[in-house]
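To: structure desk
From: M.T.
Subject: fold request, one chain
Message: Could you run this one when you get a chance? Sequence is below, nothing fancy, just the single chain.
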Amino acid sequence: MPTGYTAGIIDGKITTFEEFATICTRAFGATIHMRDESLETPYEPRTPSEFYVNSLQSLRENLERVKSMSDDVIVLEFEEKIQNEINYHSREIASSTIKIDRLNAILEGVRSWIPPSEDHESFKAFMNEQIEITIKSELGPSYHMKKVETLRKDIQKGVDPAEKKNEMILDLEQRIADKCRDLELEIERCKKSNEWMDAFFRSIR
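Reply: Done. Structure tokens follow.
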């Protein structure tokens, strides 16, 4: 049975070694940027992903915005952020209570079930384990209640606008530096991929 790479040989679309070898380059990292393209799509040199460039642009714009923020806006954004987090955890308190109650109800049924044979004992243990693991992995109401309590203290304590602004600027500057490094690495990856493909093409011509 032909593979995706040899199917073209079978149906006559690939008739030379050069064509076959070029198709096979798609299995290697040098053409990872074309992973979603058809094998028949002609090779295009790899260029840096717009994700890195766009992310960097967005971070730089945000840094300029923060630098020009007034104290009132900083306090307002801080309070809105905290309130949004409080609202989220408040919703989760009710939601997690329902989830835990549902799991415990089924767990009670599992524990009271009498296996019809010794062969069914491991099945009961398995069901019990699955529910207990799920309960442990759930962030129960107490977790969200503690988060709400901490956040309410934060909002009561308030924020020093100058300190908060400096903190935000430092954070954004660090993220910009990290993203610049990411972009440099992406450019280097593209360079190496294109060099690999250039060497390949020279070798078959």
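Reply (cont.): The two ends are 30 Å apart (CA to CA). Let me know if you need anything else for the meeting.
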